[in-house]
Design a protein that fits this description.
47% of the residues lie in helices and 9% in strands. By secondary structure, it is α/β, with parallel strands linked by helices.
């Protein structure tokens, strides 16, 4: 019997798990445990205050500290986050954008303290501010100074951290905001062009070194469940990037032109209903970015099956890691050349994507580039429109989602038998201790023995001096990375660093895209939307007002506004007057707007987990303002126990991802308005349904 020859395998991609929560110490323990399980790189999730440049004790940070990631307020936190992890040997990805320069500076200083050669540091800072204006909402500064921060980081890393990827052009969140494959490709490439043009035009990198800049640009993409189309999308990405780097920038070295990308598969596409189905979704989406060798991801991180329910537990993250390991180490995938070369079906789809993407890239260039397209609201309105069209297809049943709008009958799942233990919860007491800790840090950081007795006041400026130098540099065209590193060494906090730059650059509120979104669902007579629209008109008449008014609010720092935007658009199309001021509002601002606009309902959207803190605050302030009879509804990723508590506190209705029918939600809002105003219920023909007199008086 002859021996079976097993071909040599290609090296697997980097395997990461996106993780971080509660405190630096708890996250450090999680990282070290995941590394022992075979994870080959770190992917750091920061909490929303860190991402948006606030300290834990800022008013906007209430309820957000440690919720969706780890809080890093200063150098001490960064030390604890990576304690016992040799950074010179690690490949670390940090999902950070507006404050990317700051977090990279903290990372560099911790590596220096470990004795590392910083020129050997490997990893990635996402640092793509454009998609924050469009989809994720953690932007801080206006587009021009934001692009300057990115430019300065790139120039600095090319000189000092040559193995670091300073920017990770990110189309991931564009898909979650509704982008089609063509929009993903074209918007990401237009962003890359804006970044490269800015670095080239800054004069900080010699022309002969520009190829090194191009070589350090990486991409972070999304992979949805249409895995054939997604795989073709990745092949199209590589062709468009090849053309841009060779034709626009004249890069001749094939290695410097290589399209380098990492991926997380679609998290917001996971379902709360029958969540066990998410496992096969994750597998299919992973195949889209691994099957094709010529367009294979260099790093992959997978969500957990229960992310639509809440924060995954360590075991859930381990399951996702094992999915990658089985494919890489048990299957024969890595033994073959590209499986799709010569396929006329794949080639035709790729060519179509390339052609349509180039047309959209040229349209954006004619507008003055991606920054102009952001400021005009064009890109945002396009995404809101695409998302609205997709939601309409789901609601009509044209696009099927198993367990959500078809095949809904199910056996009880042992995975979710106890929903309250099927996810990890963050101890609310942790926020108070983090707030106290950052205050202690500010009080003691300038003491003589702040750095374990080694601090030399002559070498390390005080925090006040470092911040003054940062503001002075920001007022010139100097590279801000050096001043930022000095701030890190001086013990400056995240909020202080961002606050200093806010003073110089100002802040920015991105366009919402709601007013410019066209109608996605028509109110044809006999349709569900027509029925709801009649109910809106009848209720307005019963109340003696011209139009019902709905305030859609995003309290706190959660910038995932897709759901809020879709509710706002559909409510508008149903005949409501909609008040929507965008993201990042305090409960005080939301209540003030509700009272000033005399609204009939307040809808709050929160996906970050801060609902337990912020919603009761809004309810209390509504009562204090004399508007306690206005119904408040809440939507988001809300565990069942929290939903019960919110209803007991006075919330009229709670909507979670399983409530996918937006028109139905708008109809229920009309019902809550009628109930709050003691109006009779409406039947399907919008006729009042006489209620029991005792019910009316309750």
């Amino acid at each position: 019997m002859s021996e079976v020859t097993v071909p040599d395998k290609d090296r697997p991609w980097l395997m990461r798990t996106y993780a971080g929560h509660s405190t630096a110490e708890a996250s450090n323990e999680l990282y070290r445990r995941n590394l022992t399980k075979g994870q080959t790189g770190l992917s750091v999730a920061f909490d929303l205050p860190t991402q948006t440049g606030y300290d834990p004790d800022h008013v906007l940070a209430r309820g957000e500290v440690g919720r969706v990631g780890v809080p890093v307020s200063h150098l001490g936190d960064m030390r604890r986050l990576f304690e016992g992890i040799p950074l010179e040997q690690m490949n670390t990805s940090m999902t950070i954008n507006a404050t990317a320069m700051w977090l990279l500076a903290l990372y560099q200083v911790v590596a220096e303290e470990q004795g590392a050669d910083v020129s050997r540091l490997q990893g990635t800072t996402q640092n793509d501010i454009v998609k924050e204006y469009l989809s994720r909402g953690t932007h801080v500064f206006p587009p021009v100074p934001s692009l300057r921060l990115t430019t300065d980081m790139i120039a600095y890393t090319v000189a000092h951290l040559p193995r670091w990827n300073p920017v990770n052009i990110c189309s991931y969140h564009l898909q979650e905001a509704g982008a089609t494959p063509v929009q993903e490709i074209s918007y990401a490439m237009a962003t890359a062009v804006a970044v490269l043009d800015a670095v080239r035009d800054s004069g900080q990198v010699p022309a002969e070194e520009f190829g090194r800049v191009v070589a350090r640009i990486s991409f972070f993409v999304n992979a949805g469940v249409r895995f054939v189309e997604e795989m073709c999308k990745m092949r199209a990405f590589t062709r468009v990037w090849e053309r841009i780097t060779s034709e626009r920038y004249g890069i001749t070295d094939p290695k410097q032109r290589r399209f380098r990308y990492g991926v997380q598969v679609n998290s917001l596409g996971l379902t709360e209903a029958q969540p066990e189905n998410n496992v096969q979704r994750i597998v299919l989406e992973m195949l889209a970015v691994t099957l094709s060798k010529d367009a294979r991801a260099r790093a992959v991180q997978l969500p957990a099956w229960n992310e639509a329910l809440g924060l995954p537990r360590p075991w859930d993250q381990q399951w996702s890691l094992r999915i990658q390991q089985v494919l890489a180490h048990e299957s024969d995938l890595l033994e073959y050349e590209d499986l799709f070369d010569g396929s006329h079906v794949i080639e035709a789809k790729v060519e179509t994507l390339v052609k349509e993407s180039w047309a959209e890239i040229e349209r954006i260039e004619e507008m003055g580039g991606v920054m102009a397209a952001v400021e005009s609201g064009y890109l945002k309105s396009q995404l809101v429109s695409s998302h609205a069209e997709r939601r309409a297809r789901i609601e009509s049943g044209k696009e099927r989602i198993i367990g959500v709008n078809c095949y809904e009958a199910t056996e009880p799942s042992p995975l979710t038998a106890d929903l309250d233990t099927a996810i990890m919860t963050v101890d609310a007491a942790g926020e108070a201790s983090t707030v106290a800790a950052v205050r202690r840090w500010r009080e003691t950081r300038d003491e003589p023995f702040w750095r374990e007795g080694t601090r030399d006041p002559g070498l390390y400026p005080s925090a006040e001096q470092a911040l003054r130098q940062l503001k002075e540099a920001a007022a010139t065209d100097a590279n801000l990375m050096e001043a930022t590193v000095e701030c890190a060494r001086a013990g400056v906090t995240t909020g202080e660093w961002a606050g200093a730059l806010r003073e110089v650059f100002g802040e920015f509120r991105a366009p919402t895209g709601v007013s410019g979104a066209p109608v996605a669902v028509t109110a044809e007579e006999g349709s569900a939307l027509a029925t709801v629209r009649h109910g809106v008109e009848r209720t307005a008449a019963d109340l003696g007002v011209g139009k019902l008014r709905l305030l859609v609010g995003k309290p706190g720092l959660d910038g995932h506004s897709n759901g809020a935007e879709q509710i706002a658009v559909r409510a508008r199309d149903a005949g409501f007057e909609v008040v929507y001021q965008g993201i990042r509002l305090t409960p005080e601002e939301i209540v003030a707007a509700a009272v000033a606009e005399d609204v009939h309902c307040v809808g709050l959207s929160i996906l970050s987990g801060s609902h337990t803190e912020l919603v009761p605050d809004v309810l209390g302030r509504m009562r204090e303002a004399g508007a306690g009879d206005v119904p408040v509804i809440v939507g988001g990723i809300i565990p069942s126990a929290d939903a019960r508590a919110l209803r007991e506190a006075g919330v009229a209705a709670v909507f979670t991802p399983k409530d996918f029918g937006i028109t139905e939600i708008i109809g229920r809002i009309v019902g809550e308005i009628r109930t709050a105003n003691r109006l009779d219920k409406l039947d399907q023909h919008d006729r009042p349904v006489q209620r029991d007199p005792q019910e009316v008086t309750q």
